[in-house]
Design brief:
By secondary structure, the protein is an alpha/beta fold. Helices cover about 45% and strands about 10% of the residues. It starts with about 35 loop residues before the first helix and ends with a strand.
């Protein structure tokens, strides 16, 4: 048998397998990426930005030993409520062997429990999300566990986020423990809707309202993070992020994360942020505002179409237009009162020009139209069409006069005489005239007559009552004014130089101006004629009709007249004359009482 030779030993590595490729070496393990909002989350009170009043209050209370048993932190999203609660939990349990062994807001280095609290894994710091633990059973568990002392820390801390989402029973079950907790227990609540937290809970807590971070401070914060990350950025990019974030640090860091990824090697750029968020170039927004306020709907619609094709959101365009309208209004009222680093120099310059050209009326109307347009766009199945309709309304409303200006122009219009009483039912009358009449009747401001040059002094006429004014109009042959005063005017007050009255439905509001001008011409004196609303006094015609009806009813009750009416069926009393007013004809020698009374009563027979 032949021996099988042993394989030759070589120090060289074994040959690679003949599979046509080489296996790559295992890459070194690296830590997973942490988003900026978590990576740069504050861990000390010194790291909190924009919350100096709260930090000062807590520092003083810890220094004096006046540490409360429960705290409630409120504010908008992303300004550090939960982060502040964790820092407070760390301060309650801060312990540095050989140096510090008491609650302290000054934490120069990590203590015994700090790292575990920062990472939300400490056994004595219990974080609960009230959005998913809303019932009484969850609160009952807290109450039961609160009796036991902490395992390793100094204080057992319960952090309840979005506490306003607890049920009513859960809040009621927590009240007793919250008011008299064990000495080793602290409660920290965070909420964005403080008004939904029962007052019985709020009264047991020390409340801190965390403020929005102002744009300048936010921009500096983002600048420091970009420098720490080694990310290039344009000068106007970070202020744009700060403005969009609306004071929320978490929103700003999330947007910065997205902008870094969008810009890639180019860094954070303004154009990239606008494209990423569907924002329009600020210069185009100002151009669109100018076109709309000039009343050029065709050009404004064309620009809106270009912005939409470039990726701009119609609702966001209207929001930015409303923001610029607000900015111009503020510049008009307080030119030196705006110190916002997020507003560029070109925007300030053009805003100041608009503030000089536009009045408050057009600006406030633009604000209201744009706000209504934003809501319409959000509710519409065709956002672009709704945005265009808002621009059309804005263009046509830009040069409309205010109600005050409309009344003033109406008062300056030459009067051709009072309008006769409208014919037909009220539903057939013009709605525009009715609206103008309603404005005139609800505004009791006196209408000042125009001041005419006194070419020649008119003779003085003494007027003691409203009926004298009507008689004066009759004597001056102004039949239209006389008829209007008798039929359309409800007198309220009359004194020398001043008349107040209301108008019946359908009457012309120009009566007051016409009467004031006529009285100045006829009497040589100025008269203040005022329209007031709500008077139910009768007109002169209604008074006369009532008196006439009373006279007719009195005559009809006379025995002689009743006898005549009986003798002539279908007859009607049409007029009652006084014997002094018209001489009666010579009666026939009949001797009847009916004929003797006929000189005062005229009877008309239908037959």
């Amino acid at each position: 048998m032949n021996d099988i030779p042993a394989p030759e030993r070589k120090d060289s590595p074994a040959p690679e397998p003949s599979l046509g490729f080489a296996f790559p070496e295992s890459p070194p393990k690296t830590a997973p990426y942490r988003v900026l909002a978590r990576k740069y989350r504050p861990t000390r009170f010194e790291d909190l930005i924009g919350q100096e009043p709260m930090v000062r209050t807590l520092a003083n209370s810890f220094a004096s030993g006046r540490i409360h048993q429960a705290y409630i932190l409120t504010g908008v999203r992303g300004i550090g409520k939960t982060t502040t609660a964790r820092i407070l939990a760390r301060a309650f349990n801060y312990s540095l062997p050989g140096k510090i062994d008491k609650p302290s807001v000054e934490m120069p280095e990590l203590g015994v429990h700090c790292q575990a609290i920062i990472e939300s894994r400490h056994v004595d710091v219990i974080e609960m999300d009230a959005a998913s633990h809303t019932g009484i059973d969850d609160v009952r568990e807290i109450i039961e566990n609160a009796r036991y002392r902490p395992v390793s820390a100094r204080t057992k801390v319960y952090i309840i986020d979005e506490v306003h989402m607890l049920s009513k029973q859960a809040f009621n079950g927590l009240l007793k423990t919250l008011e008299e907790p064990p000495e080793h227990v602290k409660f920290l609540f965070a909420t964005t809707e403080i008004e939904k937290v029962p007052i019985t809970v709020r009264s047991r807590c020390l409340r801190f309202d965390l403020k929005r971070i102002e744009a300048g401070l936010m921009t500096r914060h983002l600048t420091g993070i970009c420098q720490a990350e080694g990310v290039a950025f344009e000068a106007d990019a970070l202020p744009l992020i700060a403005r969009v974030a609306e004071g929320s640090v978490r929103d700003a860091l999330s947007l910065l994360d997205q902008a870094i990824a969008h810009g890639a090697e180019g860094g954070v750029q303004v154009a990239g942020i606008r494209a990423m968020l569907g924002l329009s170039d600020r210069g185009h927004i100002i151009d669109l505002f100018e076109l709309a306020m000039k009343g050029d709907p065709a050009a404004s619609l064309a620009l809106m179409e270009r912005l939409y094709q470039a990726g701009a959101d119609p609702a966001q365009v209207l929001i930015e237009l409303a923001e610029f309208s607000h900015f111009v209004t503020r510049l008009k009222l307080a030119p030196n009162g705006i110190d916002d680093p997020t507003i560029g120099e070109d925007e300030r310059r053009r805003g100041a020009e608009f503030a000089q050209k536009l009045g408050l009326g057009p600006l406030t109307r633009a604000w209201q139209i744009l706000l209504k347009g934003v809501q319409d766009v959000k509710d519409s199945p065709r956002p672009l069409a709704s945005a265009e309709m808002a621009l059309i309304r804005l263009g046509y409303a830009a040069d409309l006069p205010s109600p005050e200006d409309a009344l003033r122009k109406l008062a300056e219009t030459p009067e051709a005489g009072p309008r006769p009483a409208p014919q037909g039912p009220p539903s057939t009358r013009a709605s525009g005239v009715s609206a103008l009449r309603a404005i005139a009747q609800t505004a009791p401001a006196p209408i000042a007559p125009p001041i005419a040059a006194p070419a020649a002094a008119a003779p003085s006429v003494r007027l003691a009552r409203f009926e004298d004014v009507v008689a004066l109009a009759r004597s001056k042959r102004d039949i239209q004014l006389q008829a209007a005063l008798e039929n359309d005017v409800r007198p309220v007050r009359f004194e020398a130089g001043r008349i107040e009255f209301s108008l019946i439905a359908g009457a012309s509001p120009q009566i007051a101006q016409t009467l004031s001008r006529r009285l100045q011409e006829w009497t040589g004196e100025r008269w203040m004629v005022t329209l007031v609303a709500g008077s139910t006094a009768p007109t002169l015609r209604e008074n006369a009709s009532a008196k006439e009806a009373e006279r007719l009813s009195g005559v009809a009750a006379n025995p002689v007249v009743r006898k005549i009416m009986t003798r002539f069926p279908g007859a009607q009393i049409v007029e009652v004359r006084s014997p002094d007013a018209a001489p009666a004809p010579e009666p026939a020698a009949t001797g009847d009482d009916e004929v003797a009374y006929a000189d005062a009563v005229i009877v008309e027979d239908d037959v």
